[in-house]
Each structure stands twice: as C-alpha cells, then as structure tokens.
Design brief:
Layout: E1 2-3, E2 31-32, E3 37-38, E4 51-55, H1 58-65, E5 78-81, E6 87-93, E7 96-102, H2 107-120, E8 125-135, E9 145-147, E10 152-157, E11 162-163, E12 166-167, E13 174-176, H3 184-198, E14 203-205, E15 207-211, H4 232-239, E16 243-247, H5 250-259, E17 266-277, H6 286-305
Parallel strand pairs: 1-5, 4-7, 4-8, 8-17, 9-14, 10-15, 15-16
Antiparallel strand pairs: 2-3, 5-6, 6-7, 8-16, 9-17, 10-13, 11-12
Pfam families: PNP_UDP_1
Domain Nucleoside phosphorylase: 54-275
Region (Disordered): 1-29
C-alpha cells in the first residue's frame, strides 16, 4: 500500500464534529487528520514497527527496503512519504516486523523522528541509525562501517561567543559535550553482525562525534564566514583520542534514548559508513558506498530482529 502524505489543510477526511484546525495538541506531540497522524512523519498508530533502522538519504531507504517482504501474502510493502521529508517502509525481515525510515540530516530531523516514532509505537523500541560520516583516523579506511560502541559526543557552535564575527570575552567558539553512551547490548550485536558481513578490517567500534552543522562545527574552512574553527578537529581528537567518526545525527538519537520514559523503553545504537577520511583526504567510490550501505543495513536488521524487546 502506498499512502499519500496527509494534507493538514484538507478537512474532508475529518468527522463533521471535528474542530477545523490545522492540527491538534500544539503543546504536546501534535497530530493531524483522521486517523490522527503525527505531524512530521505522517504516521498513524500501528504503521511503524518497534524495531527501526533509521537512515538519512531516501535512496538508502529504498535500497534497504528491497530486503523486506510485505506483511500480508500477496500484498504490498507499506510505504509512506510525508510532506515534511520523511520516508517510511514497514514490512517483514526474516519473518519479523521492522521499519526503515529515511529522516534527512541533522539534529532537528533526528529529534522529530525519535519523538514522533515514540508517540506512534506502543511498547518497547529499538532504533539503529545507519548513516555516513567523515573518518577521524587515518587507519580507518573509507567504505568501512564504524559502530558507536563508545557512544557519542556533541560539538556545538557557541553562538553566544560570537559578536560581529569575532569571538569575545575569551569564550570558546565551540562547546564539546561529555559522551552519551549507546545501548551496549544492541551496539555489540550491530558490530558483530557488521564484522560478519564486511570483515573485521572493514568494521570498527569507537566514539562518534556529532556536530550541529556540516561546515563550521566539523572544522571545514570557509573564507566567506568567521568560524574560528581552524583547530577544532584537532582539539576534539586531542580531548577524545578514541573518536573515530564525525557526522550530524547520532548524539541526538542516543541522548533521547537515555531520556525516554520509562527508562529502557527506547534502546539506541548507531553505525556509519566512512565516506571520507579527514586526515588523508581519501573519499569512497560510489560502488564502495552502495556495497557498505547494503551489507551494513542487512547486518543491522539482523541485529534488530535478534534483540529481545
């Protein structure tokens, strides 16, 4: 079944007694339409599995959805593309119900996803991210998959430190958080399955670094802006020598998993394909990326269905 994104301004699918609002519960987790759907994912209760593989790019979701089978014999794979950029597939992997969701990029999109997925799923959840990243160690090859077994730290631009494009009052232009741990059992299972699929030399564990932007907070130098970030990556690695990868989403997933109530009801882990090695400048070839996405994604699905919920 292919569903169209709910039109939050179309009232024809609402009961006649329903208030003609764009959405309801503005001070909670808003929903729109009938049946009620979470505002950004566009999902109604029951359309999302408690076992979720979250990716960034919609093409990666399309690729991994080919591993799924419809829930009903002779039926179609559930697919919903929301009008806010999220794409969800739900089906069976080796007989177990799972979902693959493309969420886009950045902390905010991960926040939308985790909170609205939690609202749409009854019972315990396990979420594993499969993304792409830059590598921070010359020894970790491009095309390999790095699992955040050491959790993740967050690097944020310290907006209050900038005045007129210059840092003032001696404030640090960037804030580096303490590590947020991943779920140990789930991360261990993901690393084991990825090593089985790619080989030990192409699957590593370590600390992830999540940045709040692709440019300034990842130490990319842009002459058009005063970013004060020339030594940022070196500073991060100096403080956290176990750091392996740098990207934009993992910390938010792990942080929200730890904050979810009741404790332990949402288990989070993450893995990323290393597409560029920052120390060496090497960038993965397209076929290497696709292979790692496919093998890594299938390995994560195996880990998800093997985890008791």
């Amino acid at each position: 079944e292919v569903l169209e994104p709910p039109d939050k301004r179309r009232k024809t699918d609402r009961p006649i007694h329903h208030k003609p609002s764009v959405y309801e519960d503005t001070n909670g987790v808003p929903r729109a339409g009938f049946p009620p759907r979470v505002l950004h994912l566009g999902l109604a209760d029951g359309e999302l599995s408690g076992r979720i593989l979250a990716v960034g790019h919609p093409a990666r979701a399309d690729l991994l959805a080919k591993l799924l089978e419809p829930e009903e014999t002779g039926g179609s794979l559930f697919r919903l593309a929301s009008d806010r950029g999220f794409l969800t597939y739900t089906g069976l992997f080796k007989g177990e119900r799972v979902s693959v969701v493309a969420i886009g990029m950045g902390l905010s999109m991960m926040d939308f996803f985790v909170r609205e997925a939690r609202a749409a799923v009854r019972g315990p959840m396990a979420v594993v991210r499969l993304g792409t990243s830059g590598g921070l160690k010359a020894s970790v090859p491009v095309g390999s998959v790095a699992v955040a077994t050491g959790g993740s730290i967050l690097v944020q631009r310290n907006y209050g430190a900038f005045a007129g494009g210059e840092v003032h009052n001696g404030d640090s232009p960037y804030l580096i958080s303490s590590p947020c741990p991943a779920d140990t059992e789930l991360s261990t299972a993901v690393l084991r399955e990825v090593q089985q699929s790619l080989g030990e030399g192409m699957a590593v564990g370590g600390l992830n670094v999540t940045a709040d932007s692709f440019y300034s907070s990842q130490g990319r130098l842009d002459p058009c802006f005063a970013d004060c970030n020339r030594s940022l990556v070196d500073d991060v690695v100096r403080q956290h020598p176990e750091a392996v990868t740098m990207e934009m989403e993992t910390f938010q997933l792990l942080h929200l998993a730890k904050c979810c109530k009741p404790a332990g009801s949402l288990r989070g882990a993450a893995a990323v394909v290393v597409v560029a090695n920052r120390p060496t400048g090497e960038v993965v070839a397209e076929e290497g990326l696709t292979s790692a996405e496919r093998k890594g994604g299938e390995a994560i699905l195996r880990a998800l269905i093997g985890l008791p919920l």
